[in-house]
Each structure stands twice: as C-alpha cells, then as structure tokens.
Design brief:
The chain has a single domain (4-334), classed as Glycoside hydrolase, family 3, N-terminal domain (TIM Barrel), CATH 3.20.20. The chain contains eleven helices and twelve strands. It is an alpha/beta fold. Strand 2, helix 2 (41-55) and strand 3 form a beta-alpha-beta unit. The strands form three sheets. The chain has an eight-stranded parallel beta sheet. A two-stranded antiparallel sheet has the order 4-5. The protein starts with a strand and ends in a 5-residue tail after the last helix.
Amino acid sequence: MAQRAFITGLSGPVLTAEERAFLREARPWGLILFKRNIEDKAQVTRLVANFLSAAGDAGAPVLIDQEGGRVQRLQPPHWPAYPPGAAYGAIYQRDNRRGLRAARLGARLIAADLAPLGINVDCLPLADVPVRGADRVIGDRAYGDTPAQVAAVAAAVAEGLADGGVLPVLKHIPGHGRATADSHEQLPVVHTGRAELEASDFAAFRPLNRLPLGMTAHVVFTAFDPVLPVTTSVTMIREVIRGFIGFDGLLMGDDVSMGALSGSIGERSRASIAAGCDVVLHCNGKLDEMRAVASEAPELKGEAARRAAVALAGRKAPKAIDLNDARREFADLMGTPTV
C-alpha cells in the first residue's frame, strides 16, 4: 500500500504498542526524531529499526534536526558537539575556501554520526538571511547576512551531508531571517516589499533550488499574501517557492503543531496540503494529534509521489573517509579541540 503524505514524531525512546498499531494502519512517509527519542546509539538504532518495521517500508526517510549550536538532537557524551552555522560564516568572511571546507567537512562528520543509526535525512542547511532587529530564533544558526554567502555555505553543507549518505532539507523556504517573532510560539508577519524580498531573502534560496527536500517557513509575507503563512498559502508556494525560487524538490511544511498556525491540527494539515505542500510534518509525538494528521493526509501520489521518489533515489552510499583524520582537520579549521 502507498505511504500517506505525512512525517510523524514519536512520544519517547521506545516504540509503544499504540504507536506500533498506529504506524501499521496510518503508513506515514517518514519519521522525525527529537531529544525525547534519544538516549544512546544502541537505543536510537533500535527505535529506528522498529519504526521501519511497523511502518512497513524499510527505505522510509528518518529525519532529525542536527545543525550544531543550539539545534542538535544528538549530544555529548554519545555524539560530538558541533558549532552553529555562524561559525562557518565567520571563517568564510576571512577565507572563502577555508570556510566552505569547514562547512562541508562539519556536515560530512554529522552525516557520519547519523548514518550508522539509520537516520538518513538531516533538516539542514538553512538559507535564512537574518536582518538586524529580527527575532533570535535564527540568529547564529545563519551562515551569514548576505544572500551570496548564505547560499555558498549552505551548498557546502548540503554537499557534505550527501557525501555521507544523508539527504539535506533546505529550510526555511522562502526565508525566516526577517521575522520578528518565533514561529514556534506565534505567527511572524513581514511587511517588506517584493523587490527587496526577491533581492535578499528569496535570493539565497535560488542557487539551492535543486536540493531534494525543502521545508517551508511559517511566516506571512504581506507583499504576496496578506493573511496566510507560507505553509498554507497557495500564492506563496506557487508563485514564490515553485515560481521565483524554482524549487522542485519535495516540499514539507514546518511542524504543523507550532504556535504560528491556527485551527485544529487536522485543519492545519488539510490546509497545508491544499496549498501545495507535498507532505505534512508533525513533530510533538502526541498520538491524538498524530491520528488527526493521518486522517487528513492523502496517499502520496501524483507529483508529490514523483518528488518523493526522486528525493529518495538521490541517497547514495557514503564516500570513504578516515574519520580520525577528518575530525582532526575539522578541529584545526575551526580552531577548537578535536570533536
């Protein structure tokens, strides 16, 4: 049977009997993991394997947010800590080639942490271009403050992940860097004009439009749609993401349970699919909400199924790497102790 067009979270570090039954019936396209799901390497590997078995798809995508800095679900002592994106940007400003090498190698090392666990998708890179006065939700996660630098470093990160057998997710399309609110808590509204957005915020995403997977921003851009956030706006997805940016990869909304969106979880899910998202992303692991999402998520078919197939077909075996040498080089590039 076909998978359904949603990615689900789970409640904890062990798959419960209720979750196992839900997965068998609902057939989600993928899984996303959070800190509540993670204890150690053996436990994560077992949880991923149990999910794949219950979902009935050994090749299903398993996602995580492993950026570095403030956003990394796998943490010491079982996994290394990585720097925030701004650290790569700072090196890039001093030496472009060294900055890109650091970003690519850091992402390659992250992939080396993820792949043995069965995690094959990382919600990275960001192409958000922050501006002065914006909410700190992006902040030092960004690779710089110009579209050209952000796009260059983001491309290097995506390459590093891919070289390690992990698919990248481009986020937060078409840009969260100008938002003055944290979309986890409330809906940001941006009043900047079209020309400026296209020359700055949106411009960083255009060179990255061939990446396989993308995630929307829960942000209203009044110059295009005065009411609806990107995730539920036909105009934003059709004209900006698919149009101006030219992104043709599989598009997921940011977490449908975030405070920026309104309506019931089912209504949010239905609205995001209707607007043009290929799959719904639901993260909090609450089973009643998971069931509501599943009830609104259609079977993955048509263009959404094509994009999903193209994305997953892009997974490749990790390129050979001496991890000890790579970690030493990375530490030297970053000017830090070996990770």
